[in-house]
Amino acid sequence: MSNVNKKIVAESKSPSRIVVKTEGFGGIDLPDIIVEQPPSLTREDRGSSPIDHMLAGLVGSINWIGHLVAQEMGFEIKSLRIEAEGEVNAEHAFGQSDEDQRAGLKRIKVAIHIDADVDEDRLELWRKAIRFRCPIIDNLTNPTRVKVRIE
Fold first, then answer.
1. Which of 9, 84, 101, 118 has CA atoms 20 to 30 A from the CA of 74?
2. Which residues are CB-neighbours of 21 under 8 A, at least 6 positions away?
């Protein structure tokens, strides 16, 4: 399979809120995504934060890859619940933290709760395959070039 180009277009609605338009793989328009800073920073609560969306992308990708790998390994997932959490220094965005502080998440913890008729050894192989094949894990653990330009 060749590379697939994904593109989104977002329009700012306020300093803390942006509406994102996405397109499905078949070229169809999908529902808007509202990204908003948390109410502790904006006093509003109309959308999920950028960090929420990043973690949502992570668990969404783990879910898809997890089901795909389980099918390839010949077992059925009865239920799957994925939790992800991360810690970020919000002061960094305001320029109030030390220069040695990262702007992004310091760490991400993922807990996968699975119900499947499969032994522990195969579950460990399944987990390792997810870790290896998940594109979002890859992007979060390896440097990815990001080019920002003004037009």
1. 84
2. 8, 9, 10, 11, 29, 32
